[in-house]
Amino acid sequence: MTKKPSNPATQQPMKARRLDGIELSLIRQINALATSASVNLGIGEPNVEPDEALREMARLAAGTGSWHYSANAGNLSLRKKVCEGTDFDPKSEACITAGTEEGLYAIFQAFVDEGDEVLVPDPGFVSYPTLARLCGAKPVPYNIEPPEWRVDAKAVLDKISRRTKLIVVNSPSNPLGSVIDERTLRAIAAAGPMVVSDEIYREIWYDSPPPSMLGMGRNVIVVNGMSKSHSITGLRLGWILAREELMKPIVTAHQYIATCASVFSQQLAEMILDAHAWNASWLERVRAQFQEQREAALFSIERDMGAKIPPPAGAFYAFAPVPFCESLPFAKALATDAAVLVIPGVAFGRAGEGFVRISFAAPIDAIGTGIERIGRWLRAAKR
Ligand SMILES: Cc1ncc(COP(=O)(O)O)c(C=O)c1O
To answer: Distance from the CA of 233 to the center of ligand 1, in angstroms?
Structure first.
């Protein structure tokens, strides 16, 4: 009897091996548990509404700009803007990307081979180890220690081996909110391997602007973007600055991922960077709003969770201890039983176990209600 051919529609697709063990991040998985009753302190995007000036710029960008492809590296006029105040050549040392995430993907695709090692912060942003694995490389975590979450240059340099291809640093940090000082950044830049500095939260700071790695060495690649600073996460606008010899393979990889970043978003970004006075006052307003929300979060974390944590110096996350709890079942139970979403620390690496990431990019009353619910749940669990 001849075997009936199986119906391709009912077959499990044969997933590529590079995706073995790779799933949607725990951030997305926890956010999928949201209901209409949930207080969402899990989200990684700013709760800043666009003002009329920003809306008008968006209307103009859509109404008067081009709808055609730009150069792969982006419109030269925008590259000139992102290079302003630096000695980077807009023609050969800047690339506009579809968000920082696409920029990171292009960098990994350009440089990381099977068998390479990539040093990543632990706790650190979920994408870094995954991007390394997708290239067949091994993510090698360097630990960042509580309670201050300061990066120790020695902890990074000790992990460098013959196989180290890239070192990833992220300041201000997601999920820690901590900032890396200039001396440490210089020591990492001078260590030898290529460094990717993810500076997406650089405009969101509280006491003083965080140092950038820009210009710290020909081996340094800086990624940045407007998702967090301008509350335009959905418009996918980022950029990479790197010396010409590093930028060439990055632009090649970027061409086959995105062709170019959205020209609408590029035109809007250019208008934003052109509007110097508006932009400065917008960023001040963003920082002032997050400062208030940070104070509210720190107050509630101390009152309701009994934890006095060092104030985050940048970004909009508090990494709060939940002793005696495994962070993943704890965060899932909080989502389903207490209707509050936070991200389990273990989503950010092994060193994140015993903590949860509380995003204070939320209205002050939601911050208060959400953390009060966490406190109540913790007290009930202890009894
Ligand atoms: C540290 C870090 N890098 C990169 C990204 C990606 O941002 P973008 O919207 O620019 O792709 C995020 C987003 O949460 C982030 O937290």
So the answer is: 9
The rounded percent of the chain whose pLDDT value lies above 70 is 97
Contact 251/95 with Cβ under 8 angstroms? yes
Cα torsion angle, 54, 278, 228, 98, sign: positive
Q: How many CB atoms neighbour CB 144 within 10 A?
A: 26
Q: What is the pTM of this model?
A: 0.95
338 has a pLDDT exceeding 60 = yes
pLDDT at residue 114, as a whole number: 96
Phi, psi angle pair for 164, to nearest 5°: -65, 120
What distance in angstroms lies between residue 101's CA and the mean position of ligand 1's atoms? 6
Catalogue the E-assigned strands of the chain.
Answer: 39-40, 94-97, 117-122, 138-143, 164-170, 194-198, 220-225, 238-241, 317-321, 340-341, 343-344, 355-359
Whole-number Å distance between alpha carbons of 228 and 165:
28
For residue 46 and ligand 1, the question of a CB distance below 6 A is answered with no
Is 173 touching ligand 1 by the criterion CB < 6 Å?
no
* DSSP three-state, residue 244: helix
List the domain boundaries for the chain.
Answer: 8-50+279-382, 65-275
Question: What's domain 8-50+279-382's superfamily in CATH?
Answer: Aspartate Aminotransferase, domain 1 (3.90.1150.10)
DSSP letters along 75-122, please?
Answer: -HHHHHHHHTTS---TTTSEEEESHHHHHHHHHHHHH--TT-EEEEEE
Atom of ligand 1 nearest to the CA of 102: 11
User: What is the per-residue DSSP string for 292-339?
Assistant: HHHHHHHHHHHHHH----PPPSBTTEEEEE-TTS-HHHHHHHHHHHS-
Residue among 26, 108, 125, 204 whose CB has most ligand 1 atoms within 8 A, to mutate: 125
Residues near 143 by beta carbon (within 8 Å), at least 6 away in sequence: 122, 155, 351
Cα 228 to middle of ligand 1, angstroms: 8
Which ligand 1 atom lies nearest to the CA of residue 225? 10
> In the CATH scheme, what architecture does the domain 65-275 have?
3-Layer(aba) Sandwich (3.40)
Q: Give the distance (Å) from ligand 1 centre to CA of residue 278.
A: 24
The per-residue pLDDT for range 76-103, each reduced to its tens digit, is 999 999 999 999 999 999 999 999 999 9
What is the C-alpha to C-alpha distance for residues 89 and 218, in angstroms, rounded to an integer? 13
